[in-house]
């Protein structure tokens, strides 16, 4: 097992040495730093934004597996205090027959997932970091790294440090490109309209996934209302975001229907373009990309964050077991999960947006069959909740 090295710290002289530097302070970055520190590694974390400078309050969907990882890191009660559990998911397609309802009880789980606000999750993670021994520096992007004398020399906006391994979880960082990672991007030709909505019926822990010809329309229970994710062509998504509230609510009601009740309020609307973005490889020597630095996925099924948390957990376990020299094997060890998760997400996007003749009828038949086959439905629910692989 890899242990802290006091000799390395002394040899570094005036430059402070850490076993691990984490670049990025989003949910995956904070979880990575926390997991590494709780395992006994010396960790420095650098966040490009100032403290409390997170933009917006988007909604995140934590799978049941992600909640278990958080709980293992000592965060279960903190997440429960801010999260709304998903106890069922209703899946249908607009204007077509066929639907299914997946229940947590069908899968033998207390919840299929948990819905949290981005800021709330960061707030739950933040006090745990210094308590675990993580040294956090805000407003300090990692701007460069070079390998010198068996260690990495890391340049940041707040000075220099050295380390044995660099874990990059900052999706906006330029560092991966500087270090030779290739970033591939494919535009979906669609945008996601997000926001908060309320109806005249309580959510009761039910999430709704409604597939339309333009893309999925999801309602995730959050507090007394729902978080909305509505995918459409960019021009329409932007136009919907700018509509007066009563007009927007009418358009949403028309698109979604009345199953969740009458829409009564909408707030915090914004739209952004969607793209599949993947890094190749994800590991070079003792440098590893995680979270949005490694991939960003389509929001359907909410798998991006959850894949990032599984990767972070696996990376820390690999570091502990074999040290930084083993990170080069991360790509091989985690390839199956990433490939399956991306394929699952892409398959859903294609399946429920294509409008070839007879395909809507086949989709409806598939949803009906899933609804009638309890073992198949339970297996699908467990896959979404506990991980693709």
What would you say this structure looks like, in words?
- With about 400 residues, the protein is of the alpha+beta class.
- It contains 13 helices and 19 strands.
- Strands 1, 2, 8, 9, 10, 11, 17 and 18 form an eight-stranded mixed beta sheet that branches. It has an eight-stranded mixed beta sheet with strand order 6-5-13-14-15-12-16-19. It has a three-stranded antiparallel beta sheet with strand order 3-7-4.
- A hairpin with a 2-residue loop joins strand 13 and strand 14.
- About 45% of the residues are buried.
- About 0% of the residues have low confidence.
In short:
The chain is an alpha+beta fold. 37% of the residues lie in helices and 33% in strands.
Q: Tags for this entry?
A:
single chain; 389 residues; alpha+beta; eight-stranded mixed beta sheet; 13 helices; globular
Q: How many beta strands in the DSSP annotation?
A: 19
Q: Characterize the biggest β-sheet.
A: 8 strands, mixed
Distance N to C terminus:
27 Å
> Beta-sheet strand percentage?
25-35%
Mean pLDDT comes to: 88
Structural class: alpha+beta
Query: Which regions contain 5 or more consecutive residues with pLDDT less than 50?
Result: 5-12
Radius of gyration: 22 Å
Specify the overall morphology: globular
| Helix percentage | 25-40%
Counting DSSP H or I runs of 4 or more residues, the number of helices is: 13
List the helices and strands and how they pair.
Layout: H1 6-11, E1 17-23, H2 27-38, E2 43-46, E3 59-63, H3 64-72, H4 76-82, E4 84-86, E5 88-93, E6 99-103, E7 113-117, H5 118-125, H6 128-132, E8 135-137, E9 142-148, E10 151-156, E11 159-168, H7 175-178, E12 182-199, E13 206-212, E14 215-222, E15 225-232, H8 234-242, H9 245-256, E16 263-280, E17 283-284, E18 287-289, E19 295-296, H10 304-322, H11 330-353, H12 359-372, H13 374-386
Parallel strand pairs: 1-2, 1-11, 2-8, 5-13, 11-18
Antiparallel strand pairs: 3-7, 4-7, 5-6, 9-10, 10-11, 12-15, 12-16, 13-14, 14-15, 16-19, 17-18
Helix pairs in contact: 2-5, 2-10, 10-11
